[in-house]
Amino acid sequence: MLAFGVRFDDRVTGKLEAFASRAKIVHIDIDSAEIGKNKQPHVSVCGDLKLALKGINRILESNGIATIPPQYAIQVLDELTNGEAIISTGVGQHQMWAAQFYSYKRPRQWLTSGSLGVMGFGLPAAMGAAVANPDAIVVDIDGDGSFMMNVQELATIKVENLPVKILLLNNQHLEACGIASARVTKRADLRAAIQKMLDTPGPYLLNVIVPHQEHVLPMIPANGSFEDVITEGDGRISY
């Protein structure tokens, strides 16, 4: 939580002990008396907000941020499952990446709503695949928007103990319904996190935080033609 020039007033926080209890709090304020007065931050900076933010930006620019490309997350899943898993998807960018970066080997291995554009398709499709193929690895590769369309089916997965794995490419909740889950933000931690998901009996949700600005390539821009196709973005040739 980034708290800039705030005092954590009880009219905002309610019970202080319960407010943002799992957050990592960064508090910046020009008045040192306000820092830690009501809510203890994990990182504090006393100073002019504009200068502090410029300093933070310089640090981020020099150190870089080891984000997880969503394409790479799917490539790692492909490697760890030897391309043998049954994959379902919702609708969105993750659907395109699942088509591009997982090496399917047989018919009916990729379950997607195609051009129907049905958001929320991935989770129930994975449930059906798990029932029909009890010995197979079934993974729903989903986006946070599409996933929330049918998030209530987590309860069904728990009750029926379906071994559905959910790789959530979150570009923007989650031990929900009692289902084992984890959250990964660093590329260096991704492979072990996916392996743990695959090794855990029963259902599992892995929340992978990916960059907001990623795009599916190649793409034709709105009102463009094939001559306007965009094939390059940030210069990367691999993920």
From TrEMBL:
Thiamine pyrophosphate enzyme TPP-binding domain span: 90-174
Needed cofactors: thiamine diphosphate
PROSITE patterns, per the entry: TPP_ENZYMES (PS00187)
Q: Which keywords does this Swiss-Prot/TrEMBL entry list? A: Thiamine pyrophosphate
A single Gene Ontology biological process assigned to it is: isoleucine biosynthetic process
**Protein name according to UniProt:** Acetolactate synthase
**Cell inner membrane found in the keyword field:** no
Top-rank lineage group of the source organism: Eukaryota
| Pfam families linked to this entry | TPP_enzyme_C (PF02775), TPP_enzyme_M (PF00205)
Q: Which family does it belong to?
A: Belongs to the TPP enzyme family.
Domain named Thiamine pyrophosphate enzyme central is located at 1-54
Q: Output the Gene Ontology terms for molecular function.
A: acetolactate synthase activity; flavin adenine dinucleotide binding; magnesium ion binding; thiamine pyrophosphate binding
Repeat listed as a keyword: no
